[in-house]
Fold:
Amino acid sequence: MPNRRQFIQQIGAASALGLGAKAGLGLASTHSDKAFHQVPKQFPRTRLRVDGKWPSDLVGNLYRNSPAMLERNGFQHSHLFDGDGMIQRFTLEGGQVFHQAQMVATHKYLAEEDAGRFLYRGLGSSPPNPRPSRNNDTANPANISVRKMGNKLFALWEAGSAYEIDPDTLATYGRVDWNDDLKHLPFSAHPLRDENGDWWNIGSWIYGGQARTIIYQLDAKANLKRVKAIPMQQAGYMHAFALSPRFVILVNTANIYRAGENYFDSFHYDSKGKSEIVLVDKNDLSVFKTIDIPANFVFHFGNAFELGDELCFSMAEYKNADIMNQGLGLGPQSAFAKDATQYNSELNLYRINLKSGQWRKEHSQLSLEFPNIKESQAFSAQAIIGMGRPVAPGAKADQDYLLSYHPLTGEQEHYDFGENITIEEPLYVRGGNDQEYVLHTLADRDKQQTGLALFKAGELAAGPVATAWANEQFPFGFHGCFVGA
Ligand SMILES: [Fe+2]
Structure:
C-alpha cells in the first residue's frame, strides 16, 4: 500500500473539492411538506399505529438516512443532497413498530449549530457568504445512506469520509479514517459485500479535471485490506458500482465534470459522448477491460452475475442527467414535487462476453429506481425490487408503484398504493422463520404522515401484510439497511 504522500500523488491532490453552487431558494419552496422545512433535531422514540398483523418473527432495525436539515436561519437549500443527514431507526419487535431519529453530528452540523446558520457550500445550493472548505469533510453532511459493515454502523456520503454511528442511541462516534493516508477521501454511499464477507466500495475523485476511482476493500470487520486509485479516461459522475465474483464493475457516465465554479453545476451531460464500463479485476485491482457504450447516466445498479462467458448486470439507466440537477432539486421540476413521478430511469440488463468483449443490452421498458436484491444471493440472477412504473395495462405514467422485476425471465409484479403515496427504497428482509419480506417506508402526502409497509417477497401484488403509520411526516430519505436481531 502506498504511503500518504505517494497516494496523494497518485490521486492528484487531497485538497478541498472545488465546491460552489447556485444560491438556494430562500423560503419560496414549492413544497408544502413539513418534511422539507425545519425539522426537529431528533425524534424521540414513539410507537407507530399498526394496521394489519405485523409478524412477530420479523425482529430488527430498519435504519435510513435522510437529508433532513434543509433550512436554517431563513435560508433553504434548493437541492436534496444538501440537507444534513439524519439517521432514522424503525425498530420491529413483538409485532410492534417504533421510530426514533437523530441528526448525524458531523463537523459541518456542529459548526453550523454553533453559528446558528449554514456556513458551507452544498453540492447543489449554497447559503450566502459561505466559508471556504479546507478539505472534503469540511462540508460533509453524511446524508445519503446508512450501512452496517462488521458490527459497526456508518452514515455515508459520497464525496468524503464515513461517520460511525452508535446503532442503539444513534449518537455519532465521529469521522472514520480507514488509515492516515486516506483522510477526507471520497467513500461512496454504496458499499457491497463479497461472498467471503469482505466489503468493497469506491470513491469517485475528480481533481484538476482528472478523474480517479478509488477502490476500497475492507475485511468483514470493516478494517481496510487494500486500496488503489485508478485513473479514468473521462471525468464522469459515478455514484455507485456493481460487484461480481471477479470484478468491480464501474460505469463512468457521460455526465462530465469540467472544472468550473460549482460542483453539480460543473457536470455537463455529453449526449454525443460516451459512457464507459470499466471492469476492475478483484485479484490485482488492475483494469481488465474498458468498454465504451453510448452516453448514459446512472446512479444505481442491480446485482451482477455470470452466465458462462457472460458477465451480466442491471442498471437503472437514464437518457440524460436531468435527475441530478433538477430531479433532486426542490424546484418545480423536482422528483419530490407532490404530483411528480420520481424517476424516469429504465432498468436494463447489460450482458458482456468476457472473451470477445462484445456486449448487448436487454431493455425492460420498466422504470425502476432504488433497485435492491437479496444480499444472501448477491451473485445470482434474481428479482430486483424498487419503485417506479411497471409495464402493465392501466399503469399511470405519473405515479410511482412498488415493483419487482426479474432481469432474465422478465417476470414482474407491482403494487399500487394510489397517487397520494410516495414510496421510498424497498429492501428485502428476512424473518426468523426464513420468510423473506419486502420492507419500505412511504409517505402519505395528503395526511403528511410517514409509514412502513411490509410485503411477503414474491407476493407484492397481494398487497401489504401490514402497515404502520406515524402521526407525523418524517424527512424523506435515500438509502438504508435492515439489521435483523
Ligand atoms: Fe444512491
Observations:
- Confidence is low (pLDDT under 50) at residues 1-30.
